[in-house]
């Protein structure tokens, strides 16, 4: 028995009232859709994902899937007018892939990025046993049926659940319910309700109140605060990460001297596989250190021809993206360049501006100092230049 997921991401997000569709809005530096797909990607129980998206978003989504290395999305389906039509389109694609009698289909809203692998596990386990299941939480509020502003009935709260996704089904059961709903023009707001309407029992698995659907602007704040509390990419902590970096390059004739992204007129430059920007290398190492991602040698090996002569600003952009994807922004950065010659003071403001631009920070968050070593050591003998950096990252909220 295999488990397929259909993720519906073709909504217009009208209640979010934003220029960007909500599935592409960022939470802790990562698009909501990617948060959601990452959880399914991580769950060992999900074999393949069919992603339902607006056709106009296909290219953009494929680029995101590549960039974030989501491997389980193997098929795409076009969105429909309503959520139900989107699921139906996903089921059409799925039909060619599944064994209708054996396999399970999990339906999940792209707009629920706080789903956990435990939620998925519980839905899959339960769907194996009960054939049609939804996750949900007991109602916290008293719910009233209202007609034209007047209360018609107060429902018995102890019987009420607010249901979410994921919802899980034996493939044939869900397909037939959707097919019947299409034929009879029956519209439901979730998939379980179609199965109920078609006459099959649906089991409810108790889920988590955290698994909210990002629907209106305040949901973004709630979701972001859950992420911050979990500090999911940084491990448990107080939302701050510190890192240090150090680098040295020897002088060489006939090369430009590039420090902090600034080309400095001098009789020689620094030797290296890349552009040998000693300051940016130290900064990148500090950033990677702060997010516990090793060092630049690991990410941009000097044995790799792609990085020959590489522009360190481009590599800094890459590292900074890694930092943002883990939910951090710059607190502050302090750097020291050790050089006997040339005099670096005239270039320091320019270096700070490069760093501020690339690290999306204010100049006041960045400090660059330069010192000689009083003619002592390899720096003093003008054999090379060294740089060190200390960085503090803060959780995004
Ligand atoms: N025609 C639609 C409508 C919704 N969805 C998806 O179904 C999920 C739940 O829907 P909802 O939160 O209502 O999203 P939107 O329809 O985008 O929002 P709104 O109703 O505010 O316009 C979302 O992941 C959404 O992208 C979809 O795939 N196709
Ligand atoms: C499927 C669902 O998420 C269950 O709560 C919900 O019904 C989707 O409703 P929407 O109006 O499409 O957001």
TrEMBL record:
It holds the Pfam family IspD. SUPFAM superfamilies: IpsF-like, Nucleotide-diphospho-sugar transferases. Signal peptide: none annotated. It catalyses: 2-C-methyl-D-erythritol 4-phosphate + CTP + H(+) = 4-CDP-2-C-methyl-D-erythritol + diphosphate; 4-CDP-2-C-methyl-D-erythritol 2-phosphate = 2-C-methyl-D-erythritol 2,4-cyclic diphosphate + CMP. The gene is ispDF. GO terms for biological process: isopentenyl diphosphate biosynthetic process, methylerythritol 4-phosphate pathway; terpenoid biosynthetic process. HAMAP family: IspD, IspDF, IspF. This is Bifunctional enzyme IspD/IspF. In the N-terminal section; belongs to the IspD/TarI cytidylyltransferase family. IspD subfamily. The record marks 157, 213 as: Positions MEP for the nucleophilic attack. The keyword Metal-binding applies. Its cofactor is a divalent metal cation.
């Amino acid at each position: 028995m295999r488990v397929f997921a259909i993720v519906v991401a073709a909504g217009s997000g009208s209640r979010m009232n934003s220029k960007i569709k909500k599935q592409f809005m960022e939470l802790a530096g990562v698009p909501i859709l990617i948060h959601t797909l990452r959880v399914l990607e991580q769950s060992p129980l999900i074999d393949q994902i069919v992603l339902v998206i607006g056709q106009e978003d296909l290219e953009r989504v494929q680029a995101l899937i590549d960039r974030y290395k989501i491997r389980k999305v193997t098929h795409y389906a076009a969105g429909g007018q309503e959520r139900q039509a989107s699921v139906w389109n996903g089921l059409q694609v799925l039909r060619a892939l599944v064994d209708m009698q054996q396999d399970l289909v999990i339906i999940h809203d792209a707009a629920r990025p706080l789903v956990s692998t435990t939620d998925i596990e519980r839905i899959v386990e339960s769907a194996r046993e009960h054939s049609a299941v939804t996750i949900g939480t007991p109602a916290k509020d008293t719910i009233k049926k209202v007609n034209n502003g007047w209360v018609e009935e107060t429902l018995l709260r102890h019987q009420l659940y607010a249901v979410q996704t994921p919802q899980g089904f034996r493939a044939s059961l869900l397909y037939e319910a959707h097919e019947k709903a299409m034929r009879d023009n029956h519209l439901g707001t979730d998939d379980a309700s179609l199965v109920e309407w078609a006459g099959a029992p649906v089991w409810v698995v108790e889920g988590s109140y955290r698994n909210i659907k990002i629907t209106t602007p305040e949901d973004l704040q709630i979701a972001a605060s859950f992420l911050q509390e979990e500090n999911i990419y940084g491990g448990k902590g107080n939302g701050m990460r510190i890192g240090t970096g150090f680098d040295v390059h020897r002088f060489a004739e006939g090369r430009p001297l590039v420090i902090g992204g600034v080309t400095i007129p001098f009789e020689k430059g620094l030797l290296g596989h890349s552009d040998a920007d000693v300051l940016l290398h130290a900064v990148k190492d500090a950033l990677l250190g702060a997010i516990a991602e090793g060092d630049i040698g690991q990410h941009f090996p000097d044995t790799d021809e792609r990085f020959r002569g590489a522009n360190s600003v481009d590599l800094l952009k890459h590292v900074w993206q890694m930092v943002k994807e883990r939910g951090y922004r710059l607190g502050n950065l302090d750097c020291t360049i050790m050089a006997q010659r040339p005099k670096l003071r005239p270039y320091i403001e320019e270096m700070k501006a490069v760093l501020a631009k690339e690290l999306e920070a204010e100049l006041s968050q960045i400090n660059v100092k330069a010192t000689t070593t009083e003619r002592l050591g390899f720096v003093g003998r003008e054999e090379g230049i060294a740089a060190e950096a200390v960085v503090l990252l803060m959780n995004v909220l």
